Structure formats: structure tokens, C-alpha cells
Structure to design on (224 residues):
């Protein structure tokens, strides 16, 4: 079946602009996660949703970052007033639930470049 | 605070040789540990998890609480094992994963 889909695959924006990154999870997966991966680093947790609500947003670096999942399926990560340091690959993952037996299924990521 | 350390950024072995990718963690509670793999041009995917005590594609990993390690091992490396490997930790009561910085394994034919 279809995996986690992220759009766009690449996004180039100018410093100070606003961007939205979209994630379509696997159908039926209730949990959705956003990670950020900078060059040479492992994925860094940003936020996760259980259903429509953000169950843990402790990884969001500052208030320029915000994410929503209004209907419990598609999620959008929003970044305001982008900075060059925001350049990274943004990964989305989903899982059927939140137990140990629910491994994360990752998308291909969106590569964000802030010029 | 929890932390995952993968000391080797790059590791090269010859085909047929044993391979060990190191992972150490720091966490005061009872950890859940995972290995994720990313093959060239593919997405990050789960390789194995410590509770399952499984062998996937010939890889095994044993949780050593005394040494706080979860090293990934394979007795005979294959060319198709060349990939980026990430060790990850989930803490009790949380659902996000903490990842190490990864090790790029290259198996030389």
C-alpha cells in the first residue's frame, strides 16, 4: 500500500518567508510525528500527534514552528520568518498506535533550503 | 537526560567479514532500543528492536544494560548491507524516538 507521503520533496525559500510542509500518513495510522534532520545528524524530534491533538510538542525549537492535524490525518508543519538555520530535511512518520509494537513508518522527507 | 551515541560516522568492511556498529546510550530508566536503516535513495525504516530479540537480514543486537550498549552485529557482511544505520532510544512513557548521529556502513566487494 501507499506509504507516508510528504510534499513538496524540495523547497527553496528566502530568509524571512513563511513555508508549509505537508505530510500524508498511512491510512488508519493514528500517531504522526515530525522530525528534523540536519546535515550529518540523526533525526531530531519536533512534535507528535495522537489523533488531532499535539500530544508532545517539546521538540519544537521556538514559536516560529507550528504544526496542525485538524482532521486526524494530514498534517502541516508551518515555519514563520524562516532563518538559514532552518535548512534541513524535515521527516514525517506515522504509526498505527503508540505502543512498542507500532514502529514508525517514515516518509521521504522535505528538503528545505533557506537562502 | 537521554542520549544516544554512535561513535563511528563511517565504517568500511570487506564482503564476508564480520561487522559491528556501535551504539551506547544514557538513560536512567528502562530503555526501548531500536536500529533503523536507510538504504541509498530509500526512506528510513525499522531494522530491528531489542525486545523482539529477532534477527533481521542476518543482523542481531543485544541490549547490554551494564555497558549501556546496543551494538548491531552481523557475522558476514554483504554488499547490500551498505547503508546508513541509526540507533534510537524510546524512554518510558514517551512516544518519540531519540536518534544517534548514524554510522555509514560501506561493504567493499
Amino acid at each position: 500500500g501507499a506509504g507516508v507521503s510528504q510534499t513538496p520533496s524540495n523547497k527553496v525559500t528566502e530568509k524571512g518567508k513563511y513555508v508549509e510542509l505537508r505530510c500524508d500518513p498511512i491510512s488508519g495510522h493514528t500517531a504522526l510525528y515530525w522530525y528534523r534532520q540536519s546535515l550529518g545528524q540523526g533525526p531530531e524530534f519536533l512534535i507528535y500527534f495522537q489523533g488531532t491533538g499535539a500530544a508532545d510538542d517539546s521538540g519544537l525549537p521556538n514559536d516560529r514552528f507550528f504544526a496542525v492535524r485538524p482532521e486526524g490525518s494530514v498534517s502541516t508543519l508551518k515555519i514563520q520568518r524562516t532563518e538559514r538555520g532552518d535548512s534541513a530535511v524535515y521527516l514525517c512518520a506515522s504509526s498505527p498506535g503508540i505502543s512498542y509494537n507500532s514502529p514508525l513508518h517514515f516518509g521521504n522527507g522535505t528538503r528545505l533550503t533557506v537562502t | 537526560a537521554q542520549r544516544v551515541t554512535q561513535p563511528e560516522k563511517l565504517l568500511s568492511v570487506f564482503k564476508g567479514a564480520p561487522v559491528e556498529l556501535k551504539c551506547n546510550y544514557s538513560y536512567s530508566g528502562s530503555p526501548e532500543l531500536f536500529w533503523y536503516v536507510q538504504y541509498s535513495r530509500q526512506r528510513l525504516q525499522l531494522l530491528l528492536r531489542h525486545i523482539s530479540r529477532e534477527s533481521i537480514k542476518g543482523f542481531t543486537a543485544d541490549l547490554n544494560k551494564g555497558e549501556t550498549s546496543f551494538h548491531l552485529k552481523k557475522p558476514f557482511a554483504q554488499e547490500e548491507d551498505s547503508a546508513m544505520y541509526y540507533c534510537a532510544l524510546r524512554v518510558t512513557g514517551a512516544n518519540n524516538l531519540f536518534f544517534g548521529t548514524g554510522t555509514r556502513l560501506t561493504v567493499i566487494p
Q: What stands out?
A: The mean pLDDT of chain A is 93. Chain A touches chain B through 27 residues (CB under 8 Å). Residues 5-114 of chain A form a domain with the Immunoglobulin-like fold (CATH 2.60.40.10).
